[in-house]
């Protein structure tokens, strides 16, 4: 029973005996247990809880997720709600709890496979429910979903070392099992490499991890774990051979690994850590140097050992210098990477530019494996950006690796928002190229489910069916027919579907009557140049009875359509040419010329005259407004001069009164608030300086 079936089959445990006894029918004494709902109103699995608020929140979140699967915050809320279910997540937990959590994590990680932390959390939950085997299954799915996660590989290897410590073969021979899940990473292809006998190699668990993350710039935690595995087993030869690989890798902590390498070479016998072939090679070099010394007949064993050790360390010094150089080349790009993990938040422009430059650099360097590794790292950080997927696909195409192409685009259609179906359409073509026609068909069908009426998808889908079944075009025709009359698509899309369907019937199926019937469905409905051009061309390519009548009928529709006049005039001229070349009546031609050509000339001239008259009238109106504005300015200046004269006269009058009766100013003090203010004798009213509030009508009358 899968998780979905378990969720449906489960009955809530929160109904006790009292509830059962309360529902008993008089039918043989049988007790009828009330059936609890297995789904929420939105169709989501019912959480095991009696809390109505939790059920409501759970249902709301699932509703949002179904409509917009990219809502990361809502997924996180759902996971928090799942943790609050009654009974927890243990082997003794209610089956529905486990089913709900599995449904949730499976759906989330299908949408966001690059969230390595959630793979680890899922494996922890399965370990509680099913033990080590359950956790290993999730780890295996995780390292397919994000195969270049250093953290996830370290956690996986650590888990195996802790829980399978007594089974060395489990560690060294663990390989990916066929879990029935879709491979979502190109590195899964590398695990399927075959030797000359066609036998699939069985990589050790650590070797699988090394292929996935060993060339990362920050893989030191993984390499430390790998080295410690051999160190704990005191297998110094394997440890030394492994470190010889590690010191050649440009990485952040390359110097520390080199120091560890030199220390091992300095403390362990050379015959113990070197392979037989290496030991013999270095021994020959040491002996040759000793032979050059005439005073020495035969090199003592201790001296030979020291000389071999010196040669080994000397050779490693050259490797170290090369590794340092390669690390320094990449350091400026690595230093600019601020977010090496996946997140739904947009990247800033400097980060995107840095990835572009870094990819340019590695492609110039030309190391295919390092280029591939960098693309994989980039497409964790920049997974939502179509440009990097397309660039990766173009590089893979240059290698001629169709399987890698299929893997790249399979992941791209999961990560990039589905509003732009170009990646899905490219994947469909790649699937067809690989010979997997059913996978290609599914991509087209899924795209049309998301974007009904999408013209490019319809055309590609129909032609895909035509290519794979050239002798039976019914499936190809069905693609067009299924898109006719769809709701919620605009008129332009409807026009394109009708026109393309008619063209298919006409040019591919050679069904003239069927094509004409489809074209006629747009008569009086579509005002589209694309529709009319194809309709006219179709009828002109069908000679025979009523030829002139049929073509003329379409042209007549154009004349009275809603197309712009300039477009109708173009069609009109083509109509005249047609009647001249294929018509049977001079009178008909003359009438059309009078109706189509001559009025167009007069109308054009009339419009030209009208435009000139309108421009002249507008110029006269502007001149009139300018004259009015000048007159108003002059009038305002005259008023200002008169006002200044009145003010000056008023001031002189006040001064004169003060000079005649100076004692009146102080003979009686009157409260300004109660004084009667009559205004100056000049007749120009100023507001009182005392702050007395006068009625509003006073100012209106002044």
Mean pLDDT: 80
The percentage of residues in β strands lies in under 5%
- Roughly what percent helix? 55-70%
Q: How many helical stretches?
A: 33
How far apart the termini lie comes to 96 Å
**What general outline do the C-alpha atoms trace?**
elongated
Q: Say how many strands there are.
A: 0
The low-pLDDT segments are 1-27, 29-35, 173-203, 653-702
Rg from C-alpha positions?
A: 44 Å
Explain this structure to me?
The protein is mainly α. Helices cover 68% and strands 0% of the residues. It is built from 33 helices and no strands. It has helices at residues 3-9, 17-21, 52-67, 72-83, 95-111, 116-130, 132-145, 150-163, 168-173, 187-190, 205-213, 220-232, 236-246, 254-267, 270-273, 276-291, 301-335, 349-365, 368-381, 386-399, 402-415, 422-434, 437-450, 455-468, 474-481, 491-508, 512-520, 529-540, 547-559, 565-582, 586-660, 664-667, 696-701. Helix 7 (132-145) packs antiparallel against helix 8. It is elongated. It starts with a helix and ends with a helix. Residues 1-27, 29-35, 173-203 and 653-702 have low confidence and may be disordered.
């Amino acid at each position: 029973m899968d998780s979905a079936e378990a969720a449906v089959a489960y009955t809530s445990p929160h109904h006790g005996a009292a509830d059962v006894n309360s529902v008993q029918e008089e039918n043989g004494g049988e007790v009828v247990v009330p059936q609890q709902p297995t789904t929420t109103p939105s169709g989501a699995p019912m959480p095991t809880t009696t809390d109505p608020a939790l059920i409501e929140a759970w249902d709301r979140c699932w509703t949002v997720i179904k409509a917009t699967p990219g809502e990361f915050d809502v997924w996180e809320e759902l996971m928090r709600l799942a943790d609050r279910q009654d009974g927890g997540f243990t082997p003794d937990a209610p089956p529905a709890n486990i089913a709900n959590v599995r449904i949730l994590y499976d759906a989330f990680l299908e949408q966001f496979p690059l969230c390595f932390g959630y793979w680890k959390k899922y494996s922890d939950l399965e370990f509680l429910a099913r033990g080590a085997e359950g956790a290993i299954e999730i780890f295996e799915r995780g390292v397919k979903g994000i195969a270049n996660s250093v953290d996830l590989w370290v956690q996986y290897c650590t888990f195996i070392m802790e829980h399978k410590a007594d089974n060395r073969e489990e560690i060294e021979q663990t390989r990916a099992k066929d879990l029935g899940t879709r491979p979502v990473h190109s590195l899964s292809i590398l695990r399927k490499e075959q030797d000359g006998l066609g036998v699939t190699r069985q990589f050790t668990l650590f070797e699988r991890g090394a292929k996935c993350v060993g060339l990362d710039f920050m893989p030191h935690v993984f390499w430390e774990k790998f080295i410690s595995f051999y160190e704990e087993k005191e297998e110094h030869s394997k440890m030394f051979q492994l470190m010889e690989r590690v010191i050649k890798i440009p990485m952040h902590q390359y110097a520390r690994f080199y120091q560890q390498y030199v220390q091992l070479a300095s403390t362990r016998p050379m015959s113990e850590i070197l392979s037989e072939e290496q030991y013999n090679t270095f021994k020959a070099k040491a002996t040759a140097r000793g032979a050059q010394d005439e005073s020495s007949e035969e090199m003592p064993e201790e001296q030979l050992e020291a000389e071999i050790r010196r040669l080994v360390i000397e050779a490693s010094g050259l490797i170290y210098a090369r590794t340092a150089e390669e690390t320094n080349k990449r350091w400026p790009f690595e230093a600019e990477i601020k977010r090496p993990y996946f997140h739904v938040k947009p990247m800033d422009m400097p980060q995107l530019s840095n990835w572009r430059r870094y990819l340019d650099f590695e492609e110039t360097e030309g190391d295919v494996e390092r280029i591939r590794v960098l693309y994989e790292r980039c497409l964790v950080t920049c997974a939502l950006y179509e440009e990097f997927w397309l660039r990766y696909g173009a590089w893979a195409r240059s290698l001629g690796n169709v399987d890698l192409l299929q893997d790249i685009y399979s992941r791209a259609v999961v990560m990039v928002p589905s509003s732009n179906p170009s990646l899905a359409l490219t994947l469909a073509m790649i699937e067809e190229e690989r010979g997997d026609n059913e996978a290609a068909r599914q991509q087209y069908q899924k795209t049309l489910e998301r974007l009904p009426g999408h013209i490019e998808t319809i055309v590609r889908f129909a032609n895909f069916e035509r290519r794979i079944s050239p002798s039976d075009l019914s499936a190809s025709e069905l693609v067009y027919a299924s898109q006719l009359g769809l709701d919620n698509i605009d008129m332009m899309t409807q026009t394109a579907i009708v026109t393309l369907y008619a063209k298919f019937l006409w040019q591919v199926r050679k069904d003239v009557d069927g094509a004409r019937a489809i074209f006629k469905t747009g008569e009086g409905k579509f005002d589209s140049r694309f529709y009319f051009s194809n309709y006219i061309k179709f009828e002109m390519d069908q000679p025979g009875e009523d030829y002139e009548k049929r073509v003329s009928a379409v042209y007549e529709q154009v004349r009275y359509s809603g197309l712009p006049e300039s477009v109708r005039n173009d069609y009109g001229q083509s109509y005249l040419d047609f009647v001249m070349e294929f018509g049977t009546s001079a009178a008909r031609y003359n009438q059309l010329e009078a109706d189509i050509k001559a009025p167009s000339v007069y109308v054009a001239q009339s419009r030209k005259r009208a435009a000139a008259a309108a421009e002249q009238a507008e110029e006269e109106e502007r001149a009139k407004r300018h004259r009015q504005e000048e007159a108003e300015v002059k009038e305002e200046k005259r008023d200002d001069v008169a006002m200044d004269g009145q003010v000056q006269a008023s001031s002189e009058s006040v001064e004169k009164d003060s000079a005649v009766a100076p004692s009146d100013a102080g003979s009686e003090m009157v409260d300004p608030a109660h004084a009667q203010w009559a205004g100056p004798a000049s007749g120009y009213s100023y507001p009182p300086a005392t702050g007395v509030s006068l009625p509003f009508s006073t100012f209106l009358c002044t």
